[in-house]
Design brief:
heterodimer; A: 387 residues; alpha/beta; D-Maltodextrin-Binding Protein, domain 2; 10-stranded mixed sheet; two-stranded antiparallel ribbon; 15 helices; globular; B: 284 residues; mainly alpha; MetI-like fold
Chain lengths: 387, 284
């Protein structure tokens, strides 16, 4: 058989013929080109990156994957815990670092005053469908008739408890935290604002819970200190979650359904209620970061979050659930997951319907202290933790 | 005239020394100096401004809870050091004198394995084990004891500290004990010294340097640990590392957090230098 290829031996090394070079070289070039194509085409269709500053969970796939796929964008979240932390992160970053900022409503005004967020056009968002008139003009979100932030979800804080240790009746007052059987079993979410707000409500300050003169502030401190012997620990999100789940803490101050809701769905015997002294509303709103060059896409995302699809995702967010804010959202949730809508009272006539509670005056929007500085409250919190 | 070879400029030797010197200057001395400078800065509207004010020092050192936290952290780290040293010694002794070199090598390998896993993950596993509904309390329940609260207590913190430091202390003690000249121990026995007396009058003094270095490592790691007191101790009350986190989280008071950090560094330097002086002090 005649060899079709010819190898010429030269100094012990095989030397391919010109035809072989062309043949194998062409094949190799073809393979290399073929292998590199996906990368080239991927580079051409590279997703636009959107930098998000938010509480944990908002940039996770259960919240953004649908929007990402539809719009060829990719969210790059930076998570914070607490409004102070958020303001600090923005203050230390150059303008334009964050395209979209999820903020607790009480911090929007500070964001705006510091010039960290863009003005928004009210015509871009469907305020008419919001379930409560107050939410359309949420405090701090508008300034001189200009919109700076859009509320997308909310929730209530009150007494969170283990049903095996505290009865539903006892949980209807913050007094249950002082129950002798709960000594060492009351936990705190480690943030001064919600816990001290609850102590203020327990002291009967009602709608003035954040507007405390020296006397009222002194009494809030006194009440809080009296709870210290009951306290078993101060926890972050993970710690709060675990200690309630394994029964180590049987009542928790400073949280609400945003944590117990996740556990409840998992079968844990825990619940949250708004007690008779009143509860606190946490409110989350989206703003467009100052200097963002992706403002149009961010606007589209906020519109998506206000749409029924976005609202259903928000209501069932894996990290922590929140109430729907639009009529269409509530309706979509009922269609998608009636059980969850019932559990959270998001059906007409439910005694724990979030808007019913607001209208009854039992819910107070979370705010920052009016007569003291945040530093005063934080100082006291440190003192309390060390007591 | 002859030049003392020790004082002669040697570019070759200096070249080899430079990387560690540059590293230390860039990543230790530099940041340390900046941190000290930062303690005099001020924060306005969540932004740090360069200044030279004593306000942060006065504010932090003037607070009673800072000193409560300081002495608590110091006490817990000291207790951790004592516990680790005492618990580790019998194990290190056995590994050094009672087992073959092969078994010792395997034991050291197994002591290193925990470091393959994140300390945070190891700490969270204790969360399950120490819970009132966890396996320890379940076993105690069989003999009619408990349940005992172990999480969110100082005991929980100590378990976390041991998780972090005990394998390291055992390794360092083992290396130190294993290097003792056996003929000195045999000489002690031949001269009629009993086993226990040999341990305290011959072995411990001979391994003193290694034992103290192990204890110093334990103290440093425990003193600066955030994870154990936060997750297993329930931040109740907070130690200094937790106070640093709290201070930075609230109002972005990095300068005040720097004050706490500088106080911690001063304490660690003092303890480490004192311990090293004791470790290397020769009998006169």
């Amino acid at each position: 058989m005649k060899m079709t290829t010819k190898i010429v031996q030269n100094r012990g090394l095989p030397t391919p013929s010109r035809r072989e070079v062309l043949k194998y070289g062409g094949t190799a070039a073809g393979i290399a080109a073929g292998l590199s194509m996906p990368f080239v085409s991927r580079a051409w269709a590279q997703a636009v990156e959107i930098n998000m500053l938010a509480w944990y969970g908002h940039g996770e796939p259960d919240m953004v994957s649908e929007f990402e796929a539809e719009n060829n964008v990719k969210f790059k979240p930076k998570y914070y815990a607490g409004g102070d932390n958020m303001l600090g992160l923005i203050a230390q970053s150059p303008p334009g670092t964050y395209d979209i900022i999820l903020s607790d409503a009480e911090f929007v005004q500070q964001l705006n005053d510091a010039g960290y967020i863009e003005e928004m056009s009210p015509a871009d968002y469907n305020f008419d469908d919001m379930i409560y008139d107050d939410f359309k003009q949420f405090p701090g979100h508008w300034k001189d008739g200009k919109l700076h932030s859009v509320m997308v979800r909310f929730g209530h804080l009150g007494v969170s408890y283990n049903k095996n240790a505290v009865t539903a009746e006892e949980a209807m007052s913050y007094k249950c935290f002082w129950k002798p059987e709960l000594k060492g079993k009351v936990g705190h979410f480690d943030w001064h604002l919600p816990s001290l707000g609850m102590m203020s409500l327990y002291n009967g300050n009602g709608a003035n819970l954040w507007n405390l003169d020296d006397g009222a502030w002194g009494k809030v401190k006194e009440t809080t200190m009296s709870l210290r012997p009951q306290v078993g620990g101060f926890f972050d999100y993970g710690g709060t979650f675990n200690s309630l789940k394994n029964g180590e803490m049987q009542a928790m101050c400073g949280i609400g359904d945003w944590i117990t809701g996740v556990l409840e769905k998992d079968g844990a015997p825990v619940a949250s209620v708004v007690p008779k002294e009143g509860g606190i509303q946490w409110t989350e709103s989206y703003s467009i970061g100052k200097g963002s060059d992706k403002a149009d896409m961010v606007k589209k995302f906020i519109q998506y979050m206000l749409s029924p699809r976005g609202q259903v995702r928000s209501a069932q967010m894996a990290a922590y659930p929140g109430f729907c804010i639009t009529h269409a959202g509530v309706k979509a949730l009922q269609e998608a997951n009636m059980k969850e809508a019932e559990r959270t009272g998001q059906i007409d006539g439910a005694p724990n319907n979030p808007i019913t509670l607001v209208k009854e005056g039992r819910i107070h929007y979370r705010n920052i202290p009016q007569q003291q500085s945040l530093e005063d409250w934080n100082d006291f919190w440190s003192e309390y933790k060390n007591a | 005239m002859t030049i003392d070879p020790k004082r002669r400029f040697d570019p070759y030797a200096l070249t080899w020394r430079m990387p560690i010197i540059v590293w230390q200057v860039l990543f230790f001395i530099g940041p340390l100096v900046f941190m000290i400078a930062m303690t005099f800065f001020l924060v306005k509207n969540y932004r740090m401004h360069e200044a030279f004010e004593m306000k942060n020092w006065i504010k932090m050192l003037g607070r009673g809870f800072f000193w409560d936290s300081y002495f608590l952290t110091l006490g817990l780290a000291t207790l951790s050091t004592l516990c680790a040293t005492i618990i580790a010694f019998p194990a290190a002794y056995a590994l050094s004198f009672k087992v073959s070199a092969n078994i010792r090598r395997w034991a050291i390998f197994f002591l290193i394995i925990p470091f393959f896993t994140s300390y945070l993950v190891r700490t969270f596993s204790w969360y399950v084990i120490l819970a009132e509904s966890g396996p320890i309390n379940a076993m105690l329940a069989y003999i009619g004891l408990g349940p005992y609260t172990m999480l969110n207590t100082k005991f929980g913190t100590m378990v976390g500290y041991m998780t972090l430091t005990l394998p390291l202390v055992v390794i360092l003690q083992t290396v130190s004990l294993a290097s003792i000249d056996r003929s000195l121990i045999e000489a002690a026995h031949n001269l009629g010294c009993g086993r226990v007396r040999t341990v305290f009058t011959v072995i411990v003094p001979l391994a003193k340097t290694g034992l103290i270095i192990a204890a110093v490592f334990c103290f440093i790691l425990s003193f600066g640990d955030f994870v154990a007191p936060y997750y297993l101790g329930g931040s109740k009350p907070p130690t200094l590392p937790i106070m640093i986190i709290d201070t930075t989280k609230s109002g972005q008071q990095w300068p005040r957090a720097a004050v706490v950090a500088v106080m911690m560094m001063v304490t660690l330097f003092t303890v480490a230098f004192a311990a090293i002086m004791v470790a290397y002090r020769k009998k006169t």
